[in-house]
Design brief:
Length: 388
């Protein structure tokens, strides 16, 4: 399912360009619901791979990526906080759904639980239907905009429809460096949630107290997303600068987490991890707009997700191998913290490249300026000293 979720991202991007995000989200809702309902038939293990793995994974990809994309197109001024609020549903899911799912299994068996969940997932189609595509409006320069809000410009000047996937984004050095950030960050992201409960159990904590750490972590994650989205919206620092700070602090917290040998200390470090993880999630997708622009966001997000899967596939098995080798759960947290700090270095490099390109106009911009000056009868001489 995780494989199909990531590999389906470019496909979801292409379909969004041809069919609109609304149609792809509704298609994803049908796929996810079909996967769960077919899995409830309990036919065989290969059938589970097809239903839960392929159909559910593709459906999640088709639902998640266009939903993130359309939030970026809806909002300009409030984009960071809008995305933070939109993504906070994952945290609510983590806190509320786990006990509900357990109750469904006890009452209706696991087959009945999957059938009910599949029926609930049909609501994704309803959510997709409510995501109205932006419509082009004729621009009248004689009529001022009464609202005078940046967000209204998103509807007045929508992104032009792209008919092909922009593989050429891979030629951008800043985007390639951001993909390296994604790979290293994903290698560290998926390790702590998998190992924090076994680590707590190894310290002698009972299952209930160990599992409660995940609930607290999810709550801290929610607060982190909202807080960082609000902070990014203040524009006190650039998104890439803020991302560098929070991902580095996240790595440091994970390096220190193994010093927690009792419930209270472990809970504090897990809460810090959850909060900073939420901060990273709130801005790392929106930062793609700063790198490739809004017109390249759909393709950029698809490529970002595709290559991010490499880190997600490597990180957890590598951490498990280290734990088996060292006989200590602390090794997995050291690995996670280290790769996250390394990922922050790539964000620094991306930020410098982006700012350097903003500071100096491109050759195309210079040629256009010279052509315009020629039409106006002005000879324009451009040199390195006055190109800015």
């Amino acid at each position: 399912m995780i494989v199909m979720f990531h590999l389906g991202a470019p496909v979801a991007s292409v379909l969004s360009m041809h069919c609109t995000q609304r149609a792809v989200i509704m298609m994803g809702g049908l796929l996810t619901a079909s996967g769960m309902i077919l899995a409830s038939l309990d036919l065989s293990l290969p059938w589970m791979y097809l239903s839960i793995g392929v159909l559910q994974g593709l459906g999640l990809s088709f639902s998640w990526l266009p939903a993130n994309s359309i939030v970026s197109h809806y909002f300009l001024k409030w984009r960071p906080i809008a995305y933070a609020i939109a993504s906070s549903g994952e945290c609510v899911f983590a806190m509320v759904f786990s006990p509900f799912f357990q109750w469904l299994i006890e009452v209706y068996t696991w087959q009945g639980a999957l059938l009910i969940i599949g029926s609930l997932q049909l609501n994704i189609c309803v959510c997709g239907a409510l995501m109205r595509p932006l419509e082009s409006k004729p621009h009248n320069p004689t009529k001022p905009n009464k609202d005078n809000h940046q967000d209204s410009k998103a509807a007045d000047d929508p992104m032009p429809k792209k008919l092909s996937f922009q593989w050429t984004l891979l030629r951008k050095p800043e985007f390639l460096l951001y993909i390296l950030f994604a790979i290293f960050a994903a290698a560290g992201f998926f390790i702590p949630p998998l190992f924090v409960v076994p680590y707590a159990t190894s310290l002698g904590l009972k299952n209930y107290w160990a599992a409660s750490i995940l609930s607290v972590l999810a709550l801290a994650d929610l607060l982190g997303r909202l807080a960082c989205g609000w902070l990014a919206n203040l524009r006190l620092v650039r998104n890439l600068q803020l991302l560098t700070m929070v991902v580095t602090m996240l790595g440091v917290v994970l390096l220190l987490l193994p010093i927690g040998k009792d419930y209270s200390v472990l809970l504090v470090f897990s809460s810090l991890y959850g909060f900073l993880f939420g901060c990273v999630v709130a801005i790392h997708v929106m930062s793609i707009v700063d790198i490739v622009g809004l017109e390249g966001f759909d393709s950029g997000l698809g490529l970002f997700m595709l290559f991010r899967s490499i880190g997600g596939f490597i990180g957890p098995p590598a951490a498990g191998w280290l734990v088996d080798l060292d006989k200590d759960f602390g090794a997995c947290f050291y690995l996670s913290g280290l790769v996250l700090i390394i990922s922050g270095v790539f964000v620094v490099l991306v930020d410098r490249l982006v700012e350097r390109k903003k500071a100096s106009p491109s050759d195309t911009e210079l040629e256009a300026t010279q052509a315009f000056a020629y039409k106006m009868g002005v000879k324009l001489v451009v040199s390195e000293s006055n190109c800015k």
